[in-house]
Structure prediction request, 147 residues.
Amino acid sequence: MIPSMFSSSPKYTQKLGYEFGKTLKGGELVLFSGILGAGKTVFIRGIAKALQIKSKITSPTFNVFRVYKCVFPSTGKVGKIYHFDCYRLKKMNDLEELGWNEIMQEENSVILLEWPECILDIKYLKKPIKVSILINREDNGRVVEIN
Ligand SMILES: Nc1ncnc2c1ncn2[C@@H]1O[C@H](COP(=O)(O)OP(=O)(O)O)[C@@H](O)[C@H]1O
Ligand SMILES: [Mg+2]
Prediction:
């Protein structure tokens, strides 16, 4: 586990995402926790930047997921990023219908998933990396933990 990091601006949260993004190699499953407006999507924009994604990243709440072509900076390999927003889902079956099991097994793909807690019976085929973002009410800063 990496100690908590503090972010006082959206720009810095994006920078933290960028630094984290540089460590991705393909095959990772990353889960994001934090209330609405915590900064999960901001952090993911930083990841996208590190992986040379040019499209604008917006929360895929209505589409559930979006997929982007990317380049992993540490290896130069081409792959894909799947950005999921499970806010509107309830059960594992909802994810499975979207091809979850197949996506999970793609070697050069990374899954970035917001709102895993909405799927009560969620199951993973691999150990997830967990990113949690808390809002510090006193100064509106963010505490980011990765473990
Ligand atoms: N330190 C900070 N880090 C991230 N976002 C922040 C911060 N301070 C304020 N914000 C604002 O909070 C909002 C976070 O939005 P978003 O990333 O979409 O949240 P989530 O995806 O967690 O619902 C943005 O409007 C952003 O400008
Ligand atoms: Mg979001």
Remarks:
- Strands lie at 2-7, 29-33, 65-71, 78-85, 109-114, 129-136, 141-146.
- The longest strand covers residues 78-85.
- The chain has a mean pLDDT of 94.
- DSSP finds four helices and seven strands in the chain.
